[in-house]
Amino acid sequence: MEKLDLLNFFVFQDPSPILGRSLKIAVDVKNLVKVYPGNVVALRGLNFKVFEGEIYGLIGPNGAGKTTTLRIIATLLKPTSGDVRVFGISVLSDPIKIRRQIAYLPEDAGGYKRLTGREFIELMARIRFKESRDREEYVEEAMRIADLKEAIDRRIEGYSKGMKRRLLLATVLAAKPKLAILDEPTSGLDVLQSLKIREVIKNYNKTYGVTVLLSSHNMLEVEFLSHRVGMIFKGAMVAEGPPKELKELSGASNLEEVFRFFIGREVAV
Ligand code: ATP
User: Fold this and answer.
1) How many angstroms does the Cα of residue 42 sit away from the middle of ligand 1?
2) Do 125 and 207 sit in the same domain of this protein?
3) 70 and 186: one domain?
4) Could you report the per-residue pLDDT of 194-219, keeping only the tens digit for each?
5) How many angstroms is it from 262 CA to the middle of ligand 1?
6) Ligand 1 contact, 110 CB (< 6 A)
7) Which domain holds residue 32?
């Protein structure tokens, strides 16, 4: 059975016996703590694993610690204590080696407004690749994913939010990273634009086996996309598993209800 078939299989079955033995770990988050200046505790001993080939969705309310977690995994922020291993490499020991294997979509990325979409993609190609063949392949793929038609030759400053998000996502995915880290990929987008972005992410994961770790407030979105979800609240994991299992476990009909179920329990403890 192919790895991805296996993944799809256990999402609808009991994953626990299969997970540990058959799948490699892409991201291993261990006892992660982050305290910002002013004694703001963003993460208080967070633990979770992402397996190669899966889409893992982090969900939680504002301020739960999602962005902090993703930035630490992307080696853009140092933890106060604890560690993260990405494909076996510690963020503390070799962040450069990790950066070569990942691509990160920040929550709100602006910049380069005076470039056209095409110029932006070409710039990213030059930053990422040395060989002209690799660059050409990347540009072609990014243009296909962005699907901006004639707007690709207009300046980014005139793009809608959805167009900008698609352009940025295209530059992340076209690199075919081993791990794509996407912070709120559909943030600020309308229903149609969000649907389009979700399709792109899902297809990409299926076609190339790219491991995806994403965050969202939108529980329906995460439910649609993710093989497994991790629910974060106040810097700690309150529940984790395939959406179907979590719903069954808590007798809920959607992830919003699951979240309320677990938060209620947390508060009660
Ligand atoms: P949102 O969904 O609103 O983006 P989030 O789950 O991504 O929230 P984080 O942005 O990781 O949460 O923030 C976690 C906590 O850390 C919050 O209390 C936030 O105010 C705090 N925080 C984040 N960045 C900083 C910073 N640079 N300095 C101080 N506190 C910070």
Assistant:
1) 6
2) no
3) yes
4) 898 898 899 889 988 899 999 998 88
5) 21
6) no
7) 3-101+181-268
